[in-house]
Amino acid sequence: MNQQKIKFTIRQDGLVTEEVFGAVGNECQDITKSIEEKLGNVTYIETKPEYYQQENVTLQHDTNQDQTQTAID
Amino acid sequence: MSHFSTIQTKIKHKPQLIEALELLQYDVQENQELVITNPDHAEDHPVVHAEIAVSNDIGFRWNETTETYDLYSDHATWNLDIPPSRFVDKVTQQYARMTVHNQVKELGFEVEEEWEMDDNSIELVVTRWVT
Questions:
Q1: Chain B residues within an 8 Å CB radius of A52
Q2: Global pTM?
Q3: Mean pLDDT throughout B73-98?
């Protein structure tokens, strides 16, 4: 079992900041999408290291090097 | 933490707007004709339809362009105990609070803590367990 937590700060002019804890990958954006859609316009998003964390995924770098061809007229 | 975002609240949903106004203890009437008594404006628009009214000349009208409910009132005859800008802020804050409460409940979260800060902002912590 994993606990997910969201902390909201609702400023007196209605500006809302939300912080999601305990969600991995883009799960956190799935959680808050419906809330954000109901509230209004998202003005700022910052993703944290866990956002890039995926289970059972191996990152592979493309080893092919870019080749630039220069045409001479 | 894996996600941090900021949202500017827009008043788009009538039920939450009514809920917010009622929480602030305003007497809400739906679909009212606002009577503009200010002589400078009364000739042009003596009666204006408002989807939501809190008095006979203060209400909210749906704005087709911005797709939001906007405050409609006459500053010259404004008679609430707070100025219009503060009124809109308070309503927007309560609207945001009600919207967050309703949405987190639908997602299976429970409110763990809620408190008001010295600067009048509201902090709300919700949690849920997932397998």
A1: none
A2: 0.81
A3: 92
Set of chain A residues whose Cβ sits within 8 Å of the Cβ of B102: 38
Window 62-91 of B, Cβ < 8 Å to A: 89-90
ipTM tops the 0.95 cut = no
Least confident of A50-54, B17-21, B98-102: A50-54
Nearest chain A CA: its distance from B101 CA (Å)? 9
CA distance B36 to B24: 24
* B14 contacts chain A (CB < 8 A): no
Nearest neighbour of A14 by CB, restricted to B92, B124, B130: B92
Q: Is B39 exposed, middle or buried (0-12, 13-18, 19+ CB in 10 A)?
A: exposed
- Residue B118, chain A, CB below 8 Å: the answer is no
pLDDT mean over A52-73: 48
Q: What is the 3 state secondary structure string of chain B?
A: CCEEEEEEECCCCHHHHHHHHHHCCCCCEEEEEEECCCHHHHCCCCEEEEEEEEECCEEEEEECCCCEEEEEECHHHCCCCCCHHHHHHHHHHHHHHHHHHHHHHHCCCEEEEEEECCCCCEEEEEEEEEC
